Amino acid sequence: MSEDLKKQYEKALSKGIHFADSMPAFEVWFLLHFAMPEQFYSSQDGVIKELRKYIPYYEKDQKWLSSVNLYTTLKPHFDEAMKKAAELDKKKEDTGNENTTISHVYKLFEELWKETKK
């Protein structure tokens, strides 16, 4: 992450804006439903290759995402994905390493649950 982007990110966080980001790609969130990333992925290609071990037919395109019931595939593993994503986040905090694979999508779900309990 560039220094300028990092400053903008920190500024947004300080104003209460949160992100459901996944680095290096959104597929990290999908992968967490099946496995804990054991390495730093520098690009989406590595994440997608790993994801295809669990969803062999995965394609990163609108046509595929629209034609497949991804929800049905991921739902049975949702709780595990939430735990693994939080573990990755803690690992990043503990090490201070910016070059780590993460997914903050779980934070979005946590916030949604809080809202439904009001």
From TrEMBL:
InterPro entries: RloB (IPR025591). Pfam families: RloB (PF13707). This is RloB domain-containing protein. It comes from Treponema peruense. The lineage of its organism: Bacteria, Pseudomonadati, Spirochaetota, Spirochaetia, Spirochaetales.
